[in-house]
Amino acid sequence: MGIEKYVSEPRELVFTPEQVFAKLSNMKNLEQFVTSEKIEELNKKGVDTKGFKLEDFAATEDRCSFKISPVGKVGIEIVEREPHKTIKFQGEKSVPFPVTFWVQLVPLPDNGCKMRLTLHADLNPMIKMMVGGYLEKGIEKLADMLCAVVY
Q1: Among candidates 114, 131, 113, which has minimal Cα distance to 122?
Q2: H/E element holding 99?
Q3: Element (H, E) at 78
Q4: Cβ within 8 Å of residue 48, ≥6 positions away
Q5: Assigned CATH for 2-147
Q6: Which long-range contacts (CB under 8 A, 24 or more apart) does 47-56 make?
């Protein structure tokens, strides 16, 4: 097993770090982003959501669970919040391999912010061959989707 790191390109948002942090640091707020209607709306805005399908989404402030193909049902929890800067997520036992995920926010002079996503996954070589490309593309796709949200 080895820790693989997948990092999105930084994205500029027209929202302040406070606005983005307030929305993303509460898992209950994420449900509105994963409905089939919201995914279709993002598609119309030009965000590539092909292959992105979540089902059975349920959330509390600190945790969420959902079904995602081809993995199945997974759970994610927030394990650390640094107000207006970082939100750290961790996969629960239902995730097939250990995973940690960060949303990093940096203020910009014009009241916007930059956002970057980082994913660490503990993958054995066989799993890396099977899912590494999906994780690499997925982190960029998720960053695009989060940039299309109104905070």
Answers
A1: 131
A2: strand 99-107
A3: strand 72-82
A4: 141, 144
A5: 3.30.530.20
A6: 47/144, 47/145, 47/147, 47/148, 48/141, 48/144, 49/141, 49/145, 52/141, 52/145
- Closest by CA position to 83, among listed 62, 105, 64: 105
Euclidean distance between CA atoms 122 and 133, whole angstroms: 15
For tokens 């099977």, what's the residue?
Answer: 130
**Which residue type does 68 have?**
I
Q: What are the domain boundaries of the chain?
A: 2-147
Provide the token pair at 87.
């939100």
Distance of alpha carbon 43 from alpha carbon 80, whole angstroms: 31
- Please state, as a whole number, how many other Cβ atoms lie within 10 Å of the Cβ of residue 88: 16
**Count of alpha carbons within 13 angstroms of residue 151, beta-carbon side:** 21
Model's pTM, two decimal places? 0.80
Summary mean pLDDT of the chain: 83
What are 20-47's pLDDT values in tens digits? 999 999 988 877 766 666 666 666 766 5
